[in-house]
Amino acid sequence: MTVDNDDRAAVARFRHALELPAIVDVHTHFMPDRVLRKVWDYFDSAGPLIGRPWPITYRDDEKQRLDTLREFGVRAFTSLVYPHKPDMAAWLNEWAADFAARTPDCLHTATFYPEHHAASYVHAALESGARIFKSHVQVGDYHPGDPLLTEVWGLLADAGVPVLIHCGSGPAPGTFTGPEPIAELMARFPRLRLIVAHMGVPEYSAFLDIAEQHDTVYLDTTMSFTDFVEERDPFPRSEYPRLADLGDRILFGSDFPNIPYSYAHALQALERLDLGTDWLRAVCHDNAAHLFALEPE
């Protein structure tokens, strides 16, 4: 589909109101086509890790999806790939490196899985310029403290490269989801830069606690505060002051293209929190621009 004119206009109005020249979206998915098709099939089937109907709003080919983000004014984004089994991560990293090389506005993304050669391909990804890693505890069904990942976490902590980690128990709990494994991980690797996906839904308060205890922990807004998520897992209004206090470590993420509503709605959901224009500018651009050392817009 081409971008709906109302969608494009709504995003433009949001940026204009904030005097925001661009958006940085830390949570977008670009994958090998056959992998993405399987992901979409899973969403279409409302599988057990989804648990509800989930239409894909931006079900387009790769070029159109890139054009859409750029039309929205997104200056930097990610290609979050993640394995669900062994001997998959290295291949995904090769694809993601090639994608970043031909897509200059994509932050070079990589991933890993608990397997004996994980440290080797993570080291190779860092050497080739990876700027963010994706970990999916729910889909990968592994404990972040798996001994096979000890060297991986050490490499990433030493490199200062952020890991965007899906570790909350939404939309459906996994064997190893929840805040406890992350608290243990940060106790072992206190310099590790983690971005907790989806604000840690539904364990919002516990992940806010972790972020307050560790100044290298960030949270991304992906799908949070939208009508779709608020219907089942509302973010507690009592925690809004903590959102404001952590305003320099909250990053905008959309989950594009795999969202069941418009891109504009993700931004409007943040706006209606009523935390102020400075907070919105920081979340939608400045925090990520600083974290990833992007050139001034």
Automatic annotation (TrEMBL):
CDD domains: metallo-dependent_hydrolases. One of its GO terms (biological process) is secondary metabolic process. It holds the Pfam family Amidohydro_2. Keywords: Hydrolase, Lyase. GO terms for molecular function: carboxy-lyase activity; hydrolase activity. SUPFAM superfamilies: Metallo-dependent hydrolases. The keyword Chloroplast does not apply. Residues 24-293 form the Amidohydrolase-related domain. GO terms for cellular component: cytoplasm. The keyword Lyase applies. This is Amidohydrolase.
